Amino acid sequence: MSEKLRVGILGATGMVGQRFISLLENHPWFEVTTLAASPRSAGKTYEEAVGGRWKMDTPMPEAVKSMIVKNVNEVEEVASHVDFVFSAVDMSKDEIKKIEEDYAKTETPVVSNNSAHRWTPDVPMVVPEINPEHFEVIESQKKRLGTTKGFIAVKPNCSIQSYAPVLTAWKEFEPYEVVATTYQAISGAGKTFKDWPEMEGNIIPYIGGEEEKSEQEPLRLWGHIEDGVIVKAETPVITTQCIRVPVLNGHTAAVFVKFKKKPTKEQLIEKLVNFSGLPQELELPSAPKQMIQYLEEDNRPQVREDVDYENGMGISVGRLREDTVYDYKFVGLSHNTVRGAAGGAVLCAETLKAKGYITKK
Fold it and tell me: Which GO biological process entries does UniProt record here (predicted)?
């Protein structure tokens, strides 16, 4: 066994679990040693458990094919084989809250892709380029859980990744009112066109719970720690519409912004292309070299051209222009299952390791 940290994936057979497995193949710091899923998959090899449901473009890594899947509900057993876990379980919110806390209480850090703990006051919800200082709330969480090493950290919803980093880059101009419409890929629902043929040539103007997340979660990212909990920011006010579109990967956002301090277009672009944070400073393995690219062409960003920018960990922005009602408008694009899901969680785990929160057991 190498010096790499031993990783378990909870919910390993689902689409986000598969994305974790793909992203962690040959990772320099982490090695997948344990896969866990529902009782119906337990006891099978990973290849058998997934069957014909492998949804990634790249082949299933050889290293996981013959791994025996464990029962995710056998917390002590799974936890005994790993240094930390990624959580992508498909359960009810209450079940997810409980099982993630149960893992944390075995002194196993949990880095979660799920939404269940995003509003637990002492659980950090982090985009490492935006608010890595929120990881400091982990010390308060450990006191509550009665742990020394175990905790839960989460990443935010996939839909906000195409505009929250942009607004963060512009914070000195004080954006105070934002309208965003997101055009969201079907992989955000864990589907492919094979699973969901009725999405071909179709648009559905409703994604359950998505608009509330898209309006509120950025405010938590921009919040601060007070008395051992995260207090969300009050501004900017954000209103959204979230629409499912016939695209496999890539969430696009059309966004309108009002600023208290009126910037020029050149100033806004300069802030975007120079935006960076702790992951870039530390040169973390999954960190994009340049988080945000600005595209001058009128017909960009496009999903087909730009979704894989920086291996899916970067944000593409275009069509920035003055507006007749708002100050400026733009279009943003992010990869919803890489930056928006598993990749964002891997970057959180890399940041937590670099800051000493995740260590060998």
Answer: methionine biosynthetic process; threonine biosynthetic process
